[in-house]
Specification:
With 207 residues, this protein is α+β, with helices and mostly antiparallel strands. It has two domains: 1-93, no CATH class; 109-207, no CATH class. It has helices at 111-120, 127-132, 191-206, and strands spanning 16-19, 26-30, 36-38, 43-48, 53-57, 63-67, 74-79, 87-91, 101-107, 123-125, 143-149, 159-167, 170-182. The protein starts with 15 loop residues before the first strand and ends with a helix.
């Protein structure tokens, strides 16, 4: 049995490295059946609370997970903390930049319930994004609802940005994306906006 990170997975391997004080380096990704496992085959449950991903094994304490750049997709992570467990997240690589987490999600419930869950997790509806954000495009016939967490009080650093995809008249099928680690453009009397603008230009330059 190999202990190479990701050797048990079939989705690109590696995924998250766990930050557990006093423990050896542990990597968690999906195995061939979609379970969350480390390089020794130990299974984990994973949750995301809108800011951090936390993994818990059957016999261990919760450990925060940090995404490893270049990893394949990792599925099977549900909502935790103040986010409802009806959220189901697939984390994927976000490339270079300030982002530290990037995920797609689906929600088993109504659109207003999904929004309320993000509000409870410290996010606010971003009217600025809903009006001016052209970086993210809605699908044909649909529209987007943006929410952001505050981030650092002055710079907006390490803000979360959730984007819900909605369709008129459809209230029970919710999907979207969320990423954590960028600057909130509505924070700090323009400072967050300038830093976010620099991030956006850097993102377009890498495309």
């Amino acid at each position: 049995m190999s202990d190479r990170p990701g050797s048990r997975g079939d989705r690109g391997g590696i995924g998250f490295v766990l930050r557990c004080e006093g423990s050896p380096e542990i990597f968690v990704s999906n195995d061939a059946d979609g379970h969350l496992v480390d390089q020794s085959g130990r299974r984990y449950a994973g949750t995301f609370d809108g800011r951090q991903v936390v993994f818990r094994s059957a016999d261990g304490l919760p450990c925060e997970g940090a995404w490893v750049l270049g990893s394949g997709e990792v599925t099977g992570i549900s909502g935790g903390g103040d986010l409802s467990e009806r959220f189901h997240f697939t984390f994927l690589d976000h490339g270079r930049g300030n982002q530290r987490l990037n995920a797609r999600f689906r929600f088993e419930g109504k659109t207003e319930e999904a929004i309320a869950a993000f509000l409870g997790a410290g996010y606010c509806v971003s009217r600025w994004d809903n009006r001016f954000n052209k970086q993210h495009q809605a699908p044909a016939g649909g529209f987007l609802v943006h929410l952001r967490s505050r981030g650092h009080w002055l710079t907006g650093a390490d803000s979360g940005h959730a984007i819900l995809t909605m369709f008129p008249g459809e209230r029970s099928s919710v999907s979207g994306e969320v990423h954590v680690g960028e600057h909130n453009p509505t924070t700090g009397m323009g400072i967050g906006f300038l830093l976010h603008l620099a991030e956006t230009y850097a993102w377009w330059a890498r495309r």
